[in-house]
Amino acid sequence: MENNKPVTIKDIARRFNCSPSTVSRALNDHSTINPDTRANIQEYAKEVGYQRNEVSLSLLNKKTDTLGLIVPTISAYFEATVIEGLHSVLHPMGYTLTICVSNESYEIERDFIARLLSNRVEGIFLSIAQETYDRGYYEHLESVLQRHIPLIFIDRDFEGFAASRAIVNDYLGAYAAVNHLVSMGCRRIAHLRGPEGLTVSEQRLAGYMDCLARNGIPIDPELIMNTNFKVESAIVPTQHLLGLRERPDAIFGANDQIAIGAMRVILDHHLRIPDDIAIVGFDNSPISAYTYPSLTTVARPGVKIGMEASRMFRSQVSGVNPNTPESIILPSELIIRESSLRG
Amino acid sequence: MENNKPVTIKDIARRFNCSPSTVSRALNDHSTINPDTRANIQEYAKEVGYQRNEVSLSLLNKKTDTLGLIVPTISAYFEATVIEGLHSVLHPMGYTLTICVSNESYEIERDFIARLLSNRVEGIFLSIAQETYDRGYYEHLESVLQRHIPLIFIDRDFEGFAASRAIVNDYLGAYAAVNHLVSMGCRRIAHLRGPEGLTVSEQRLAGYMDCLARNGIPIDPELIMNTNFKVESAIVPTQHLLGLRERPDAIFGANDQIAIGAMRVILDHHLRIPDDIAIVGFDNSPISAYTYPSLTTVARPGVKIGMEASRMFRSQVSGVNPNTPESIILPSELIIRESSLRG
DNA sequence: ATAACCATTGCAAACGTTTGAAAAAATACT
DNA sequence: AGTATTTTTTCAAACGTTTGCAATGGTTAT
Question: What is the CA radius of gyration of chain B?
């Protein structure tokens, strides 16, 4: 029969015929405890594998050292880099990150928020779900602010809601991408856009439209088609674009997956990339450099976003700017590769 | 001045001039509490946004309803699907999943294990880090078993360690992949293998070698090269393979990323896929169906793995098989696409 | 011998919640 | 009215840890 239940400070105290306080102080190296006692207790504790019950400490100190992260999905490359960025700052600070995947569902997101609050996390990083955005629900977020728990939007942003945000300048990225296509001589530039309502989608669309306008190119609604960011959702729209009387000479995909899906359809039609149709994606996913042809794309600084979000959290709890929401919009960077490089 | 600190049961008790126990029971709908009192308290609680402090409950009941998941990386498609599978079972059961990313580092993995134990998680799903495997360290895992906390290996397996495991039959998947190449007439089949020591790498290598042997094809060590699973690590090895006096007529990549990197190099050499060189990957990542040419690959049932792992956890805590480690090895499925389909 | 001091240890409260048992209050029955 | 019964509420302990303060014991200086 082995030791099933974790050994507590009381167990150790009983073993040494002393009080729990003595054990506690011994384990914490208090100088007021007799060095011999201290050594004995520490040795014994190590021997039996004592491990502090952080739950009780959380209760006592009202500090859980835990932060919540809610993301709509975890499979996208960008999310992974954001997590990396968050982690690189928060792990050394002793915080544990509880990662929750909302799967774009409002229901699940709300449930996670409630659980995180009940578990007394000290901050929440949130990339809101599509559904939440669509429905415009935000009561579950109010409850976070009401508790004065730092809430930091990452990537996706709930406009008009008084919380901090660390997001990427998708607008300028999209603008640069389209501008590059224009400079390559493209005039009929299509856009396979992301889901409606999402800030990232809208910003990229806006950058696309403004850039066209600035270059005196009329916006043709026929050239703007919907996708859900997944590769397969690019297939039918691209086929449709290729079937138009006036075929586009470039496609700006809302992300790399979409761009890759579009490329595939184009190659199936025996058209050349970039000569017949140029392609630009968004995200600079690792694979984009090795597709055939390699994909011009817009790099988003995911790691930096994560680090900035962590910084915001820190500044909120350190009380420099207790409740003042901060905003940071990091630039994205156009990376030109074969799929758009003409001539 | 708003209510900064979360409202407690005691606060409510004070407000109603009653004891905390009454409030507790009222909130939990005990029939022994006067219906009027109950209604009043519940209404007031909702009004002030009372939310149970789960930390105190965890301490009291020694139940945290939290499970830990440690993965080496989060950016791979397979990991995302495993998480989805775990989530689909555990979320409805009321468990919260704390996801930790070890980044292939033993140090970080060990630290996470310690934190999870200190935070009294009720189970740990672990896909061990490369470094842990290499060094053969497992004391941090002993401490988990010693506490009788269910430990379930997913995907990557620590052979010979007495814990449950839910893994994929990579061996048979690799065997089927290579067999398919053979049946397509390939005789000089190269393998871009995964990191040494990792079970998944070794199993795929073994499947490759056994299949060749069974087909009477001699194993040429020159045709087996190392990668780290990342797309860029496939480039130099593939270039090397193409420069051999006797070029391979097929390449079996340890995962889709590797295969895609290889494809790129092959296309750059103006060789045809699959006619000059056939390609097979591993993972069936979403993009593999849309590369050009589309990639033959081996699908791993990530969602199923997650669900099976959850089931194992459940069977361990429900006490049917308290401490008996279970093993399940799910089959993988060859998905034949253009990159290997000859003539 | 006695006060003063120091080193070491113990007590008790606190964090928020639940729960068995006891107490109190209200109602029913004779 | 007095007792039995039922309804409703409170008490106290428990979960594991920390910490201010008090207490103990011992040593030193007067």
Answer: 26
Read off the pTM: 0.92
A230 contact B CB<8A = yes
Q: What is the dihedral of CA B306, B147, B71, A233, to 10 degrees?
A: 30
Rg over CA atoms, chain A:
26
The token pair at B237 is 């090895």
pLDDT at residue B303 tops 60: yes
User: Would the pLDDT of A244 be above 70?
Assistant: yes
> Which residue has the closest alpha carbon to C10 C1'?
A19
A46 touches chain B (CB under 8 A): no
Beta strands in chain B (DSSP E): 66-71, 96-101, 124-126, 151-154, 164-168, 189-193, 224-226, 250-253, 278-280, 297-299, 327-330, 333-335
- Residue B138, H or E segment: none
The owner of tokens 């799929």 is A339
- Alpha carbon A261 to chain centroid, angstroms: 23
Burial class (CB in 10 A: 0-12, 13-18, 19+), A15: middle
Q: What percent of chain A has pLDDT over 90?
A: 84
Question: Could you give the C-alpha distances from A39 to A26, A336, B342, in angstroms and in order?
Answer: 8, 63, 72
Q: Which two tokens stand for residue B127?
A: 């896909």
DSSP A199: H
pLDDT above 80: residue B343: no
Q: How far apart, in Å, are the Cα atoms of A132 and each of A19, A110, B287?
A: 53, 9, 28
Taking an 8 Å cut-off on Cβ atoms, the answer to whether B294 and A96 are in contact is: no
Nearest to A274 by CA among A291, A293, A289, A254: A293
pLDDT value, residue B203: 94
φ/ψ of residue B278, rounded to 5: -90, 150
The Cα A130–Cα A105 span in angstroms is: 7
A45 CA from C9 C1′ (Å): 19
pLDDT 10s digits, B107-118: 999 999 999 999
Q: And the tokens for B273?
A: 């896929």
